[in-house]
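## retry 2 of 3
previous attempt timed out at serialization; input unchanged, resubmitting
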Amino acid sequence: MFFTLTASATFAAEPVAFFRAGYGVVDSAGSLPETIVSADGLIWKTPVAAGHSTPTVCGDGIYLTTFENGKLFTVALDRATGKVRWSQPVPHDRLEPYHPTGSPAAASCACDGERVYAFFGSYGLLCYDLGGKLVWSLPMKPFQDEFGAPSSPVLVDGKLLLNEDHDLDSFLLCIEAATGKQLWRTARGGFTRSYATPIVVDTAQLPGAPILGVAAGKKQVIVAGALQLAAYDLA
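## retry succeeded, writing output
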């Protein structure tokens, strides 16, 4: 697999980046190329191992996860040159089950400009500094689910959120991003095998706030699950 960067599709890097940050809406920054295989406007092209994570652009770095020959990695590329800055192996006793067309490297990284956060269903959460040094880790055994755990971590107000809906023991987890300390964990009873990454909404920005009994100005964590959409108070 190759990762490419084209001159005709350059976007400003956000100081905090994660899967579908800004609700998946990107400010207009020029037109997209009709093809990325053309040499026209190609800045660099770097071979990388397979993986299904969306590359996360933060500052001058690009972060992704890969899977090859039974091994998992968190990878950092230089945004300007495509050079691999570091590639850290992910420890795991066994790989989680996953769909034949899927990958155990499916969750996208998050980055706050100081640290990079990666999640693998085969291991759990890992936090690195921008140089690739491990800051903290939170092991989790593979979940009871035959199709993997691709929900990605989300950053908000110095907190890291992770939603995991599986056949057993589904939960929403909130962690202090800098330290890995658990702030709260809420069980999601009745939610089974789903893969949604949460979004965070400030109710003050919604028409008709307050909604659902939550005072205006409070942030809600919105999670799409099996048969239900649920909102949680961020605090």
